[in-house]
């Protein structure tokens, strides 16, 4: 995290980023015309049946392959 990069947090794990005071934002919100954030409706981010590419480290791959 000190050298940069991307962290994807799922579920309750974004709380860690807030405690570490990292510059994070919720990607599943949109801005209203008044400048407030509101959750995206499922139509705007739902991807049923899609394949989402994901890169992981070799350590993670070796653990899941076992």
Structure description:
This protein is α+β, with helices and mostly antiparallel strands and 66 residues long. It has one domain (14-65). Helices cover 27% and strands 9% of the residues. It has helices at 14-19, 42-45, 58-65; strands at 29-31, 37-39. A two-stranded antiparallel ribbon has the order 1-2. A hairpin with a 5-residue loop joins strand 1 and strand 2. The model has no long low-confidence stretch (mean pLDDT 74).
**In the residues, how many domains can be counted?**
1
State the low-pLDDT regions, or none: none
**Multimeric state:** single chain
The structural class is alpha+beta
Give a short account of the largest sheet.
Answer: 2 strands, antiparallel
- Please provide the count of β strands: 2
Secondary structure: helix percent: 25-40%
Average pLDDT score: 74
Provide a count of the helices: 3
Shape annotation: flat
Question: Could you give the topology of this structure?
Answer:
Elements (H helix, E strand, L loop, with lengths): L13 H6 L9 E3 L5 E3 L2 H4 L12 H8 L1
Features:
single chain, 66 residues, alpha+beta, two-stranded antiparallel sheet
Give a brief rundown of this model.
With 66 residues, the protein is of the alpha+beta class. 27% of the residues lie in helices and 9% in strands. The protein is flat and about 35 Å long.
């Amino acid at each position: 995290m000190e050298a940069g990069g991307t962290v994807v947090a799922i579920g309750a794990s974004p709380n860690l980023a807030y405690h570490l005071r990292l510059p994070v934002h919720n990607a599943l919100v949109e801005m209203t015309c008044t400048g407030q954030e509101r959750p995206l409706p499922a139509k705007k981010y739902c991807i049923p049946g899609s394949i989402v590419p994901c890169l992981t480290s070799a350590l993670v791959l070796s653990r899941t392959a076992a």
